[in-house]
Amino acid sequence: MTHPTSPDHALPLAGITVVAIEQALAAPLCTCRLADMGARVIKIERPEGDFARGYDAAANGSSSYFLWTNRGKESVVLDFKQPDDAALLHRLIASADVFVQNLAPGALTRAGFDSATLRERHPRLITCDITGYGTGSETSKLKAYDFLVQCESGLVSVSGAPDHPGRIGVSICDIGAGMNATIAVLSALALRSRTGAGSGVSVSLFDGAADWMSVPYVHERYGNGAPAPQGLKHPSIAPYGAYRTRDARDIVISIQNDREWAKFCAVFLGDADIANDARFQTNNARVQNREALDTLIGAAFAARPLVEALSLLGDASIAYGQLRAVADMAVHPALRTWPMATGGEPLQMIAPPVRAPWDAQRFEAAPKLGEHTARIRAEFAGVAEEASA
């Protein structure tokens, strides 16, 4: 079944149908990426709707979270606890290639829609389960919202400022789980193209966060302990952090090797001999003597205005970035935006991060609650439940 609004059949997932029982962020982000690649995504919602619809009203009266992760989908309202709606859901899944869900563990098992049962019934079906902590452990039944997983995984313990650990400022565990789920589904589709058989894949918010914590984990278990929050500094590389100019602008520099350090000393600090100071000759030495290093570099930045500092950094071929607020990012020359239709004025939304030949250069609208219910009910009224993907 082709995506109803994508005439370009060169889209990589044209002809793929995804049925999703999803809410919040992780699963909707996964299926949004699949929709961007041409899949038809049928989003199953409860009568009150995906609760992300009510997270905020920043997007011209709509939720920024919901618009970001639900463009190009079809919304169907049904209650699979009711026999008629359960039968419709079975017919939808029978015609699908992929089934994605992120409900609480056990919710679909009780209703007969668990992934193992569905794959047994439809051998070509790919199922993707997104959970907070996976299955089979004492934490499996815990509610797992993004910030809670940031805390449980240790992400917060290495973030923020010294003595003030802090939440990462976006829903990073949800986002990571959504991207991992996308990778998992695409991998299962590739395997099915060779074997003809579907697969069951699963991801959890905690697994994704734990994977990102590999370096602190190794330092904790086998080194001298995990790094404490560093603020605008890197725990293992120096100089790698923010320095303030004479006109109160913050520049972040990153020096990755001793060759770069020597050039920085000669061009920016104006003294090539500093590179040979025993306290600063190697990265390990610079990390151990970070306070003296930062005092030296900080004084050089404080003596120069932003324009001069950036010019010298360019002359020295040093990697740098400016510490920007969201308002600055919104007008950044590298930022790409695409128009997205809404009920009111069109929005300029940030373009997807993957640049590909099949980019549509526009965003389809996110569906209104139950917008496609009547059409979907009519379309699948005569579909046999025994059909397979």
Automatic annotation (TrEMBL):
<dbReference type="Pfam" id="PF02515">
    <property type="entry name" value="CoA_transf_3"/>
</dbReference>
<dbReference type="InterPro" id="IPR003673">
    <property type="entry name" value="CoA-Trfase_fam_III"/>
</dbReference>
<dbReference type="InterPro" id="IPR023606">
    <property type="entry name" value="CoA-Trfase_III_dom_1_sf"/>
</dbReference>
<dbReference type="InterPro" id="IPR044855">
    <property type="entry name" value="CoA-Trfase_III_dom3_sf"/>
</dbReference>
<keyword id="KW-0808">Transferase</keyword>
<dbReference type="InterPro" id="IPR050483">
    <property type="entry name" value="CoA-transferase_III_domain"/>
</dbReference>
<protein>
    <submittedName>
        <fullName>Crotonobetainyl-CoA:carnitine CoA-transferase CaiB-like acyl-CoA transferase</fullName>
    </submittedName>
</protein>
